[in-house]
Amino acid sequence: MTVIVLGSGGREHALALACHRDPQVAAVHAAPGNPGTASFATNHPIDPCDKDAVVALAREVAADLVVVGPEAPLVAGVADALRDAGIDCFGPSAEAARLEGSKAFAKEVMASAGVPTAASRSCGDLDSVGAALDEFGAPHVVKDDGLAGGKGVVVTEDRDEALAHAEQCLNSGHQVVIEEYLDGPEVSLFAICDGERALPMQPAQDFKRVGDGGVGPNTGGMGAYTPLPWASDNLVETVSNTVISPTLSAMRDRGTPFIGLLYVGLALTSDGPKVVEFNVRFGDPETEPLLSMLESPLAQIMQAAARGDVSGTDGLRFRRGAAVGVVMASEGYPASPVKGRRVVAPVDDEDVLHAGTRIEGDGLVTSGGRVLVVLGHGETLAGARTDAYSRVNQLEVSGGFHRTDIALHAAELEAVDEMADELAPQSENNPSNPTDGENS
Ligand code: AMP
Ligand code: GLY
C-alpha cells in the first residue's frame, strides 16, 4: 500500500510513522511533511489545502490512501475532492467536518442526538452575549463559532474579558457561542469511524495551559499521556454509547456520514462525561503517545474506514504500559513564537517527533510554536515520565521551554493506588479523582 499523510506537524510525523510500521505499507509520502518524516518517507512541498495539488500528487504516486492530518484541508473539502477522484481518503467531507468547523453546528448535532454537553447559546450581537453570560454566570466560556487555530476559546472569571473576546469574534463576522462552564478533569477520546461503526482508542489526557500547574493562556497542547490509570474502566464504553454512536447516527441521518477520526473532548463532571468539543481529526499532541503504543496496523484500519467498513478488522490494540509526550516549545509560544532559533535534535528517532522544525544550512531551526514532541515509555506513568524528561534534557530548542509536570499528578495517583493495592490486596480499587484536568 502507498500512503500519503497531509500536514507538517508532530501529529503527522506520528501518523506517518504508524503507517510506515504497518506491514502492508510499502511507501509513505508526506505533504509537505517535516525533517522528521523525511528520514523514512518522501516529502512533497505542496499546500495540503490545495485540492488540485493533493489530487495530482495522489495520482502521481498512485496512492492507495490519503490521510488528512489537520482540520483546515478537511473544512476546505480536500477529502471530497479525493473521493470524487476515486481515491480513498481517511478524513470527513467538508459537510461532516463542520462538527469542528462550526461550534454552533456541533451543538445542534449534539442536541438532536441527545449527546450530553454544556448548555449553550449561539449569539449574533453583544446584547445577547451579555444576556447569555449572565444566564450561565462565571466562569465564563466564550467560543468563536469558526475555526480559530486554537485561539477561539476564552475561559475567564472576568466578564469584561469575556465580552471583549466576544466583540472581537463578532467584529470578524463570526457568531459567538456562550457556554455553561463544565467542571471536571478533561479526557480526549479518539475513534476511527467508517460512517456507521467506530473503533475507539484508549483515552488520553492533554495539558492545554502553557505553564506548570495549569497557568497561563490556552495552547494547542503542551504534553499528553496515555492510558489514564485513574479513569473508570467503563469510560470508553459509556462514551461510545452516549456520544459516539448517537453522533454517527445523527450525521448519517443528515446525509453526511462521518468517515475519519472523531475526537471527543470530554469533561468528566459529577453528572457524568459531557462533551467539551468535537474535532474531526487526530489531536495534537495526544496522537504522538497514543500511536507509539498502538500495536494494530493503522494504515489498513484507516483504509477500511475510508472504504466504509471497519467490521473486518481486528479493532485497535494497544500495548501494556504508559506513554508520555512532552512538547518543547519556542520562546514566545503561544502568542508570538520565535522562528529561526537553533534546534538540536535527531531527525530519525521515533521518540522525537518534529512539530515545528525546518532545515537551515546543515542544522535545524524552529519554524513554529510547538517545536518537538518528545516521548517516553515505561511500565508505569512515572517510568514513562522519567524516560521522556531524560530525553528532553538531551535536546535543545534555543531559548525555548517545556512544562515539567506532564502526567505528574496522574503518576502520583497511580503510585498511591499501587501502594493501596499492596497494603490491601483484597479491597476494591478505589479510583481517585485527579485534578490534572485544566479546564479552569
Ligand atoms: P475547545 O476549542 O472547544 O476545545 O476549547 C478549548 C479549551 O477550553 C478546552 O479544552 C477546555 O479546556 C476549555 N473549555 C471549552 N469549553 C469549556 C466549557 N464548557 N467548560 C469548561 N472549559 C471549557
Ligand atoms: N490537543 C488538542 C487538539 O488537538 O485540538
Write structural notes for this entry.
This protein has 13 helices and 24 strands. The protein has helices at 10-21, 51-60, 71-75, 78-84, 98-101, 103-113, 126-136, 159-171, 235-253, 287-292, 298-306, 381-392, 408-423; strands at residues 2-7, 27-32, 42-43, 65-68, 89-90, 120-123, 140-144, 153-156, 176-179, 186-194, 198-200, 205-206, 209-211, 215-218, 223-226, 259-269, 272-279, 322-329, 342-344, 352-354, 357-360, 363-366, 370-378, 396-397. It is of the alpha+beta class. The longest helix has 19 residues, at 235-253. A hairpin with a 2-residue loop joins strand 21 (357-360) and strand 22 (363-366). Helices cover 31% and strands 26% of the residues. The model is unreliable at 427-433 (pLDDT under 50). The chain has a 5-stranded parallel β-sheet, with helices on both faces. A 5-stranded antiparallel β-sheet has the order 12-15-18-23-20. A 4-stranded antiparallel β-sheet has the order 6-9-7-8, with helices on both faces. It has 3 domains: 2-93, Rossmann fold (3-Layer(aba) Sandwich), CATH 3.40.50.20; 119-179, Dna Ligase, domain 1, CATH 3.30.1490; 186-420, D-amino Acid Aminotransferase, Chain A, domain 1 (2-Layer Sandwich), CATH 3.30.470.20. Glycine (GLY) binds at residues 206, 220-221, 279, 283-284, 286.
Heterogens = adenosine monophosphate, glycine
The radius of gyration is: 21 Å
| Average pLDDT, all residues | 94
Largest sheet: 5 strands, parallel
Number of strands: 24
Strand order of the largest sheet: 3-2-1-4-5
How far apart are the first and last residues' alpha carbons, in Å?
Answer: 45 Å
Identify the CATH architecture of the largest domain. 2-Layer Sandwich
> Which CATH first-tier class of the largest domain would you pick?
Alpha Beta
The named CATH superfamily of the largest domain: ATP-grasp fold, B domain
Q: Which structural class best describes the helix and strand composition? A: alpha+beta
Annotated CATH topology of the largest domain: D-amino Acid Aminotransferase, Chain A, domain 1
**Overall 3D shape:** globular
Total separate domains: 3
User: What helical percentage do the residues reach?
Assistant: 25-40%
- Portion of residues in beta strands equals 25-35%
The helix count comes to: 13
Low-confidence stretches: 427-433
EC number: 6.3.4.13
Pfam families: GARS_A, GARS_C, GARS_N
Keywords: ATP-binding, Ligase, Nucleotide-binding, Purine biosynthesis
Catalytic activity: 5-phospho-beta-D-ribosylamine + glycine + ATP = N(1)-(5-phospho-beta-D-ribosyl)glycinamide + ADP + phosphate + H(+)
